[in-house]
Sequence to fold (313 residues):
Amino acid sequence: MHIGISARRDTERPMRTGHMAELRQFAQRPSSFVVNHHVYVSQCQDVATNLSIEHYLFQKSHPESTVLLFPLRTLSDRDRQQDDKIKIIRRRSGGGTVFHDLGNLNFSIICPPATFHRDKYAEMVVQAIRKTNPRARVNERHDIVLDPGEPLNTVDRPDPEDTHRTAYAYGNGILEPRKVSGSAYKLSRLRALHHGTCLFNSPNISGISEYLRSPARPYMKARGVESVRSPIANITDHQSESPSPMIQSLQQQIIEAFIRKYNLDFNNLYPFSEPPSTAIGLKEHTQCTSGVIDAKLLEIPEISAGRAELEPR
Fold:
């Protein structure tokens, strides 16, 4: 499988080039000043490869550009048969442990540090999550939580656009908010990285705490911000929509929130809701580059070397 590129110019005719030329075009595109926004969905199933693609974009994307990346991780039948053998990969940004399964959506956003603050993209993701569950909000730790209580009286309800408050009660003897998304961050002189998780409909929700418990925890001390354990839930909990929405719908809602945030044109996006017919591809426009990518990007030397660094030894 190769990366097919459709270049949107004065016509919609696809421009196909050789495989290595396509890789070179992807390698050059993130650093282009012409296109300031990028949306990529990875179809690669390997965590280390996706983290290396993320790191490549962090290093190579233009300092004034903003990149939205969805690193896809799915479970194969072999994964399910060997669910007691968990692969551990260390993120370059650090942060708490992230659990990957079919019901967890991951996202990464890379942007100029001058425009970055820790709530900025959490607020954007809350806007997307509220399409499925209106109980979502950003808390004081920049996490996304669900308020589990009963609806507030009409007079006490906040502005629906307020992403830090909901119309549902919590605290004062009511069940505490349940965390559905946590984040980690990395800052350099030229770039800021925010990557987060979204527990959408994980079938392992009741066992995640056991997977993440370490017998060495009393002897470990974090060099950065200490991770705080929180009760968790799925985004699809406490929501009335029927039938249950698919995780792809949340991905599409986050893409749409990103497009609205930067006043981009939906018509210029790669049709993520439609599977590629014959090849993985990208769609380029002066506003935005978007598309699906895969493990063929390992043929870019920096991505291959980055993956090798992350593999357990």
